[in-house]
Amino acid sequence: MSRNRPHVLIIGAGTGGLCLAQGLRQAGIAVTVYERYRTRGDGLLGYRIGIGPTGSRALRECLPPELFHTFVATCARSPHYFNVITQRLRQTASFPLRPDTDPVNTERSVARMTLRQVLLTGLEDVVHFDKTLTRYEQRDDGSVTAHFADGDSATGDLLVGADGTHSAVRRQYLPHAVTRDAGTINIATRIPFTEEVRALLPERIEKGISLIFGAGGVMGVLHVMDFPWDSDGELKSGLDPADAAVLRRWPGRTHDSTRDNVNLVIWSTARRFPPDIMRLRDADLIRVALGLTRNWHPHLRQLLTRADPASALPVKVSTSEPVPPWKSSTVTLVGDAIHTMTPGRGVGANTALRDAALLSRQLCLAAAEEKTLLQAVADYEAAMLPYGFARVADSLNRSGTSGDDRMYKPVVGRLALLGARGYFGVTSRVPRLARRFVEDFYSYRGEEED
Question: Which residue of 28, 251, 315, 443 pairs with 186 in a disulfide if CB–CB is 3.0 to 4.6 A?
């Protein structure tokens, strides 16, 4: 190992960790990734994440050109509209979104499973599964050793915690950096996208991403995931020939079981859920979702009854407490390991990708002897902490993401609901305001000032 050509150990093969590994591999910097899941298909990987310009820019920077093309080709059909609807399927607002002709400056719908398979491509020799970190040691010679539950250990020059909200790296390195319960719970479901299901959805909802402002403090989000392959995994007709060629060459297809589906997520304040909600699964969880949505449109309730029971999952929403800067060392953190945020603004994955690209850039400067390894880490952290925790605050302030939000109050909640619906309704009907809304949407999801 060399201080100016470091060996980087990454704990966690999630979105940020694998993007970082790709960037380092591209730069010729030695990297090894350790993942606690047993296989590349384990974990909560089947649901949608929205990748905006910030995330796409980071992926383009870190991935080999053909793999970035593969990422673009594996995305589901991009949403044509951002909709706001009521629980009775009445349209409050609908904003046309940018077409996805630009590879970066648009909003892309990505399945977590598929994105993981893309990011693992070409890294098979450096990613080790079934490796749970128990502790690490920082040594006097500047190296750091990671110890795993199976008795193995690994030594490198820098340890990067990319191990998510419950990060073992953060727990040891920054024990004062804690997450707290945001007070809301999601029930995520996945419904196979059949012709019968298509018939339940108005056209703009089928072709968009829809926020459901439900009465009684029950919210939802619905999006259709329409992929370039069919239910048998065969490529659909009508694909761009270049995309089809890339997909045929991509070995990750054999590991990806993702198929066309509708993601429907129901959420509310934790007080509305049974005490044992986090232990419920399958049909029991879907029954809770149906109980919360008794006054919803029959078509939305039919979606819930058609959900794959094995896909239903409860998610307790967490948020990080801001921490002041610390003295940089041979350990650092990316993504949810340092700045867990609620899904309120939909930028958690994008921010993790931004972290990965920034840290990769800094480590390349260290490898080129333009700065020391510690200075590279310090410069990364000096930029990451402000934007990361700004995103945490923004996501928590979004309507409905905090369990104490007035949306969930018995009387005030009705007024808050009317106010939210009124804001979106007026904004969508005034062309100048509608244009500004869409511009702000992309500006926020494309911001990058590193």
Answer: 315
Which of 360, 74, 79 is CA-nearest to residue 229?
74
Intra-chain end-to-end CA distance of the chain, in Å: 29
Most confidently modeled range among 96-105, 350-359, 407-416: 350-359
Q: pLDDT confidence of 429, banded at 50, 70, 90? A: very high
3 neighbors 151 (Cβ within 8 angstroms) = no
Q: Coil, strand, or helix at residue 168?
A: helix
DSSP for 211-243, please give it. EEE-GGG-EEEEEEE--SB-TTSPBPTT--HHH
The single-letter code of the amino acid at 7 is: H
Which pLDDT does position 44 carry in this prediction?
65
Q: Locate 119 and state its tokens.
A: 């990011």
Per-residue pLDDT at 263 exceeds 90: yes
Calpha distance 437→80 (Å, rounded): 15
Calpha distance 204→107 (Å, rounded): 16
Residue matched to tokens 């994105």: 115
Identify the bridge partners of residue 208 per DSSP, sorted by sequence position: 81
Give the pLDDT of residue 4. 58
- In the structure encoding, which two tokens stand for residue 400, read together? 């409905």
391 burial level (CB within 10 Å; 0-12, 13-18, 19+): buried
**Sheet bearing 127-128, strands edge to edge:** 127-128, 30-34, 7-11, 158-161, 331-333
Q: What is the DSSP string of 294-341?
A: TTS-HHHHHHHHTS-GGG-EEEEEEEEPP-------SEEE-THHHH--
Residue type, position 55, single letter: G
